[in-house]
Amino acid sequence: MTRRLDGYRVWRVAGVETRRIDLGVALALLGVAAVLIVASLTVGTTPVALSDLLPGQGMDDAQRYAALTLRLPRAMTGFLAGAAIAASGAMLQSLTRNPIADPGLLGLAQGSLLAILLALILLTNLPQGWVPLIGCAGGLGVALFLARVTAQSRTGDALALLLLGLAVETTLSAITSIVILYAPTDLSFNVSVWLAGSLFQAGWGSLGAMLPWLALSLPLLFAAGPMLRLLELGEEHAHALGLSLRAARLTVLLTTVLLTSAAVTVTGPLVFLGVMAPHIAGALLPSSGRARLLLSGLVGGIFVVGADCLSRSLGTEIGLPIGLCLTLLGVPLFIVTLRLRMLRRAM
């Protein structure tokens, strides 16, 4: 452990530098996530008390099925999906230097959604394991298109990338609406529920289908951290410091596609989470690079688990969509966070 010139204590291991305060906040958020996941095992129509989860306290078959077969994989899936979308939002905000950038704004999530929707319509017996691959192909197609069109110059492409992504997202959203309008009634209803954000079908199978894609994105996520720290300085400064902007842009877009596709396959598009979570994480502790991605991901996962608990606590057979519950939970806190930041700058 050493102390940097800015006063922060850091650990340096194998060339990787980590602030001690970043690790402390991350451990605190992990504790909050663990408490929420355990609490989520008790929320639902089948009563399960916290005392029933203790070792030696026997649960009957109905309680065991509800807690361990339904609720535990649902909470874990929601946490990982929320973390993936929040980390994707943090990466795109650093890449475009725009505080409202997220996978939905650049059309990456919409590309995955449209590819999955077309596959469900054309291939009625599609195995579940193929769904993430199809979603990744759709998102990757959008990412490669954005990277190709904006690769004409070395610098100055952040705004072009954002505007082009917005145009692509609008076009794909229109095509998705047309497909849903003319799709079979049952499929249209199920897709509409999925587009609102849902963990209704989350289970051990969906968690297993999502994990390989998240594991595949981890090395890219680790490599993208230093690139993002330089990109936050501006493209001209990053280029002057030796960063290959084309390689950085492609790495960030590819990582975002893998994370977004894995999450969207299970939960649908969690609108606004990719924008909200990085800002709330930044309010807790200003950070950059890998630390910002980690904290943003933890905040995003916590919000999804909390929204799922809120949805199931209403006592109805069909709970509120996760996207709506995220809005109810996150937007007030997001507004308070922005207000406090404005007051802090005014002082």
From TrEMBL:
Main location per the UniProt record: membrane
InterPro entries xref list: ABC_BtuC-like, ABC_transptr_permease_BtuC
This protein's record includes keyword Transmembrane: yes
Gene Ontology CC: one annotated term: plasma membrane
Location of the protein in the cell: Cell membrane
One GO-annotated biological process of the protein: siderophore-iron import into cell
Alphabetized SUPFAM superfamilies for the sequence: ABC transporter involved in vitamin B12 uptake, BtuC
MF-aspect GO terms: transmembrane transporter activity
Assigned keywords, A-Z: Cell membrane, Membrane, Transmembrane, Transmembrane helix, Transport
Transmembrane segments: 21-43, 75-92, 104-123, 129-147, 159-182, 202-222, 243-264, 320-340
Top-rank taxon, per record: Bacteria
Mode of membrane association: Multi-pass membrane protein
Family in the record: Belongs to the binding-protein-dependent transport system permease family. FecCD subfamily.
Name assigned to this protein: Iron complex transport system permease protein
Species of provenance: Alloyangia pacifica
